[in-house]
Structures are given as C-alpha cells and as structure tokens.
Design brief:
195 residues
Amino acid sequence: MSTDSTAQSQPALPSDRPKTALVVIDAQNGVLAEAWNTAEVVGTIADLVDRARDSGTEVVWVRHNSDELPLDSEQWQIVAGLTPAEGEAIVEKTHASSYEDTDFEDVLAARGIGHLVVTGAQTDCCVRSTIHGGFARGYDVTLVADAHTTEDLTEWGAPPPQDVISHTNLSWTFESGPGRTAAVKEASEVDFGTR
C-alpha cells in the first residue's frame, strides 16, 4: 500500500490546531491617530496582551505599510502602550486582509494556532477582512467587542464610528459555518484557557 508523502507533510488544518492567539491588527500611530475612543481601546488591548502573555497564549501583531504608513516612519510604528515582546511574531502587510501576500498563515500554522482572538483597527477594513478571511480558511474567530475601532468616515457617507463598531459586533454574532465558530466577546469575557 502506497502513501502520499505530500499529504503527510501538509500542516494541520486550523480545526486540528489546539492553540489560541491574540491578534492585534494595525495598532499603529497613523491608523489610530483619528480613530474613535483610541485611549480606551488601546488600554483594553494592552490588558488583553498582558493576560495572553500571563496565560502562555501567543500574541501575533499585524502591521500595515502603505503610502500613508511608510515603512519605518513614525506613522507606521505601533502605538505607545503596546509593545511586541521578543519572540512575538510581527506580520507585515500591504492589503486589508492579514492573509493576503503575507506569512500570517505560516506563522499561525507553525505555532499550532486554530483560534484567533481579534483586536485592533480599522473595524470596517482590516479587522473585518481578517475575521472573514480567517473564518473562510477554517479558523475559529472571536472578535473582541470593545477592543477594535475605526475613524470617522461620515464625510464619505459611512455611519459614525461607534455605529460601525456596533454593527460589526452584531453581524459577527450571526456568522456560522460547519466545523468552526464565530463569537463576539467583551474583553472581560475572554478566557485564553478555553476555545
């Protein structure tokens, strides 16, 4: 009986990976400068980072670079109060989704991560693209209701930022699919010891 060595060398699917990661998306100076409720959101993320580290949960940072966020510029830097620790992955991206043209999936697979606890900015762009992208790829995805934010784009016809955040939290509670879960939790409800 022959075996397919290619199939044997494939990484485990997200549903078969036991670990959780706290994902911090685009918590950068240029992204959060005009965001709604920034100080409170950054404080909430900082607390989650501390709790994740204390529990041995991986923290994965995602950082965007673009014309508005040039590589190595002040705008591109992660905000004060949030500092990646040595050994924590930092994924660099140029598209809204953390998966597009990055090593994000390789980082998650290498660490055995199948559940993403997502925070950061912006709610209606990079956060939304990443939670949907992860769920479509088979990850369990928890959106932290009070740990993501966006800027005020009402001038261009968008709802006020707090409504964008509320609507995203509401709509994610209805996301479903076989073999994986979508959840919305307040930061105080996040338990890194459970999936």
